[in-house]
Amino acid sequence: MKQIIKIRIILWGTLGLIVLWLFWRAIVPGGEIVYIQDFDGQNYFIPKLTPAERMETGEDSVKIINDPVYFTLHTPRTFNQAKLEIKFRTSDNIRILEAGPLMDKTIWRYNLQPLLNTTLDQLSLVWEKQEELDNIFLQREKKHDSLESFLASPPSLSEIAIYNFDWPREYLLPNYSSSSKKTIIDIPLRGAYQFYTYIKDEELNFKFTLADLNQNKDQDNIELILYYQDEIIFIKSIEEASTVENDELAELGEIEIKQNSLPEGVYKIELRASDDIVTRGIVTKQSKIAFINKIRLLRDLKKDIKMYTDSRELNALTPHPDRLQKIKVGSKVLDLSDTYKLISLNIPLTLRANTDDKSIELTLYLDGVIISGDGVFAFAREQIINPRLKKVDENIDINAEGVNYVIANYKSPVVDDDWQRASIQVDLRQAYRERGAYQFIISVPGIEEGEYVEIDEIKVEFRGRTLLKKIIGLLK
Predict the structure, then answer these.
(1) pLDDT tens-digit profile of 259-301?
(2) Which residues pair with 208 in a beta bridge?
């Protein structure tokens, strides 16, 4: 009998310890915890990467063969910071590997940070290299003693390329003058977008005519945001209460942004909305309006649409079988021959060299297409403005583009036998979190058929407030 009691005590004690351990893991009282996915079995905290068709799964690793892939981080509580470390190896031609958390689900915006940039790694071996804090400064020929002295008196911006670095100097157009002529864009746009504009001694004024497709039951919240030097200076919100799913276009009227006495310079305007929202038209007093990276044309009745871009790579996609077409890109053709498939075309520098803004003309014979690239898009050549410096990405040709200086916030991966290890620091305070989970992306831009990134391990170290600090915060 005593033996049975001892066994019961041991079993209950063991069960109690397990419960206590699980409770400890759930509340993370010390504010720090580590989760690891080594692809050697099931993992609740970091499940499998998705979608499966973009990967090849091995016994204890996974190969990314198409871009991008996603993974979820289940955590028992919120955290402030995370260190994401990935152990990987790649095929020969992979140039970029990035990762980061989802920040905004409405427009699916991720905060991408670098894990690998082979162009920077190669330049670091042959160019003059200086390191300052987390930044590297590369010079084809040494002409500056420090990054600080370079930034104080930089050469022509055409000689500079950056990566994961915020250029601190203001962008001004030397020969710009305001115009009384109205700029009208009457090509219907679907969903969210951002664009650059420019003002000098004039009022900033835009009117947007909006409509709702009513294709889903979700409430369509719309935000119009004005940025100056990456800071929000104006925001206007519309809450569209309609939850009727009837596929009928409902007019929402006009939303206007009007600001006086603003300093000269580049401004960014963002329309943050779901794909249910349509911009029927834009009317402005500004002569510059260049859409950033992506623009989605509504499937309407527009034909023979002229656009202009300074992108080095052009991408097109359509979900509509009746919108398959051959898009004219200068003297080249982008054959959009499949639905739901992203078709890409490299635009050589020689095709863009005949204009001062290095832009090229596109002709879309039908609308209903999503156009994207690494530059800006405009509906008239004179509307183009792009204040961004060249980026050291998968499309750059350092020599052909005359780059002599590179600044990057980047650390090369550490070699680990046949693998490499790279990590990024992630601020989770503004990251999107739903049902106890953070969403992450792993991006391999430019990956082609036959290429891969093989991942052996994903390790995440979370840091947040301790249980004591949480309690004190709640009491306050």
Answers:
(1) 999 999 999 999 999 888 999 999 999 999 999 999 999 998 8
(2) 255, 282
